[in-house]
Write a structure and sequence with these properties.
Strand content: 5-15%
CATH superfamily of the largest domain: ABC transporter type 1, transmembrane domain
CATH class of the largest domain: Mainly Alpha
Strand order of the largest sheet: 6-7-8-3-9-10
Number of domains: 2
Bound molecules: adenosine-5'-diphosphate, magnesium ion
CATH topology of the largest domain: ABC transporter transmembrane region fold
Length: about 650
């Protein structure tokens, strides 16, 4: 009976949540303004929060009602042999129970409305914000960590918020109500009951800390398990395992992580069981004390039997709130830390974003110009969060990233000699085709990233249609440029959906004509599901050439004014290469195009060839000019270009 108050009533929420918390968070310094921002998120729910708190207070006050009614039954009704009063009071006890249950339901309704609403708000904010990050952010970020920030941290923030809110308010009210009632009944027994409190508090705090540490450790292992599964179970990862790995080593690695989760689970279960057992024992001992001492007092006539029974009931409702409140500081800090981790993502400024006065591209044919461009890939601290870059760092959420710490993967800050591109200048006049050639790693793909403004240049400028790309609306810029890379990505969806992604309003006819131009229409007509064929994860159900031609159709659908091809046929066998090349020729027809190619015939057909070497323009000119020069191009021509 005495355990009832520990599980139910006002103290319940506080108990469960204090196990999740880590005492170390109390040492964490919360950034100023975090509380205000949290309040900002809570604001739309102000009315619901107030209603929720009022209901909490009401149900906390009800906690003392049952013991007091029991007191009346014994002292007033039973002693006076008043059957009618016994029945009335007993009905009241039942009524209180029903009201408590109903209040519990309403309370849950409000807390889920507030909590889920908060999750929705935070999650959509983070999603929108992450989408606006530059591509550098994504190359630096481990997908798993980012997804966990969107999932567990957002949920953690919400849970901490609602449970802290209700636990703080209802425990304070419950504690006050129970203590006042006890004092009013008998201050002697109250003092004795309170003497047991330190005996409960000390182990409660210790075990609470241990459980929190265990929980965090197990979350880390669970995250590792999860990221191992996501890495292995997508088609590309599964292929790699099939071709290079062995099921045995995979099993050993997975099993060792799973075993860690299992062992921690056992420890967690035992720790919390020991804790609850000890708590139950303490409460029973306290009950024994109350009955022992109270019984003596009752014999002496200093106390009624009803008071004694009421006391025992109140006692069960005393220790829960005491324990929960002892961890209140940790609770509040944990809530704020979860919010901080979410805010950390929200505060990340995208490196590339539209200027306030950005304008659309001018109409008509447009060319490209690189004007003394120097560029270095940004370091992690510039584009991402160190805590998101590796899964491990994610486990130490309490250490803020040190901006001065040496970055192991730093590609040299803006020092010119280490720059990926140095003083690169060339142009692609409107309607012409320029070939970009050079050894692997020379910076060719980097040039294409700067034209589409996936990154911003360090020095110099990239101009499209004679306008600095930094002054253009990104939608307008990207709408005008069609890019085909060596391994095009398709979403796990139908061909129709993949094409529609490029141009949402496209009709079926538009799609077929793009597919025909891309030399893939006939193939798709032969598929049993036609346009509604699902291409599989990253398009794995198609051959490289088929996938590439669908990607080209996707570009054609947008009818871009500029076409950029980055080794679009590099991965293909000669047969599909020929088909893809025909598709590409259609795509480039009458358009400004920049082509990174390894086929001599493509390079030869270019109006101009730009040779890039270690980030610099080594030479530029027509095929015959460059061959005559006898430089790097002549060398590449002799050794590399396949015919
Ligand atoms: N996202 C990136 N972050 C940092 N360095 C990069 C990134 N992408 C490419 N690099 C580096 O930039 C250099 C040029 O790469 P890239 O432009 O892809 O060469 P190419 O396309 O000519 O083979 C290489 O040294 C490469 O390691
Ligand atoms: Mg490349």
């Amino acid at each position: 009976m005495s355990m009832r108050g520990f599980g139910g009533g006002g103290g319940g929420a506080g108990y469960a949540s204090s196990f999740r918390k880590d005492a170390s968070v109390t040492q964490h310094r919360i950034a100023r303004g975090t509380t205000r921002r949290v309040a900002g998120y809570a604001k739309p729910y102000l009315r619901q929060i107030i209603a929720f708190l009022l209901i909490n207070i009401a149900s906390s006050l009800l906690v003392v009602a049952t013991p007091l009614l029991l007191l009346r039954i014994i002292d007033d009704a039973v002693d006076n042999r008043d059957t009618r009063l016994v029945i009335i009071l007993a009905s009241l006890v039942a009524a209180v129970a029903i009201v408590e249950a109903l209040l519990g339901l309403v309370q849950r309704w409000f807390s889920s409305r507030i909590g889920e609403g908060l999750i929705y708000d935070l999650r959509t904010d983070v999603f929108d914000h992450v989408q606006r990050q530059s591509i550098g952010f994504f190359t630096r970020t481990q997908t798993g960590s980012l997804v966990s920030r969107l999932n567990s941290d957002v949920i953690g923030a919400q849970q901490a918020f609602t449970s802290t809110l209700s636990s703080l308010v209802s425990n304070v009210v419950t504690l006050a109500a129970v203590l006042i009632t006890m004092l009013a009944l008998s201050w002697e027994i109250t003092l004795i009951s309170l003497a047991v409190v330190p005996l409960i508090l000390l182990p409660a705090r210790r075990v609470g800390r241990r459980l929190a540490a265990l929980r965090r450790e197990s979350m880390g292992y669970n995250a590792e398990l999860g990221s191992m599964m996501t890495e292995r179970f997508n088609v590309a990862g599964a292929l790699l395992v099939k071709l290079f790995g062995t099921p045995e080593t995979e099993h050993v690695e997975f099993a060792s992580r799973a075993a860690a989760v299992r062992d921690i689970g056992v420890q967690q279960a035992m720790s919390s069981r020991v804790f609850f057992t000890a708590l139950g024992a303490m409460a029973s001992i306290a009950t024994a004390l109350v009955y022992g001492l109270g019984g003596v007092l009752a014999i002496q006539g200093a106390l009624t039997v009803g008071t004694l029974v009421a006391f025992a009931g109140l006692l069960g409702r005393l220790y829960g709130p005491v324990t929960a409140l002892s961890n209140a500081q940790v609770d509040v800090m944990t809530a704020l830390v979860s919010f901080e981790r979410v805010f950390e993502v929200l505060d990340l400024q995208p490196m590339v974003s539209d200027a306030p006065d950005a304008r659309p591209l001018p109409g008509g044919p447009i060319g490209i110009e690189l004007d003394h461009v120097t560029f270095t890939y940004p370091s992690a601290s510039e584009v991402s969060l160190l805590t998101l870059e590796s899964g491990r760092a994610d486990r130490e959420p309490d250490t803020p990233p040190d901006p001065d710490a040496p970055l192991t993967k730093d590609f040299g800050r803006s020092s010119i000699d280490k720059a990926t591109l140095r003083d690169v200048s060339f142009d692609v006049p409107a309607g012409q085709m320029v070939a970009l050639v050079g050894p692997s790693g020379a910076g060719k793909s980097t040039v294409t990233s700067l034209i589409t403004r996936l990154y911003d240049v360090g020095e110099g400028a990239v101009l499209v249609g004679d306008v600095d790309v930094r002054g253009l609306l990104s939608e307008s810029l990207r709408g005008a440029i069609g890019v085909v890379t060596q391994d095009s990505h398709l979403f796990h969806a139908t061909i129709r959906q993949n094409l529609g992604y490029a141009r949402p309003g496209a009709t079926t006819e538009d799609m077929w004509s793009a597919l025909d131009d891309a030399q893939i229409g006939a193939f798709i007509r032969r598929l049993p599901d036609g346009l509604d064929t699902i291409v599989g994860d990253r398009g794995h159900r198609l051959s490289g050439g088929e996938k590439q031609r669908i990607a080209i159709a996707r570009v054609l659908l947008r009818s871009p004014r500029i076409v950029i091809l980055d080794e679009a046929t590099a991965h293909l066998d000669s047969e599909s290469e020929a088909a893809v090349q025909r598709a590409l020729d259609t795509a480039m027809e009458g358009r400004t195009s920049l082509v990174i190619a390894h086929r001599l015939s493509t390079v030869r057909a270019a109006d101009k060839i730009v040779v890039l070497e270690r980030g610099c323009v080594a030479e530029q000119g027509t095929h015959s000019e460059l061959v005559a020069r006898g430089g790097l191009y002549a060398e590449l021509y002799a050794t590399q270009f396949a015919e």
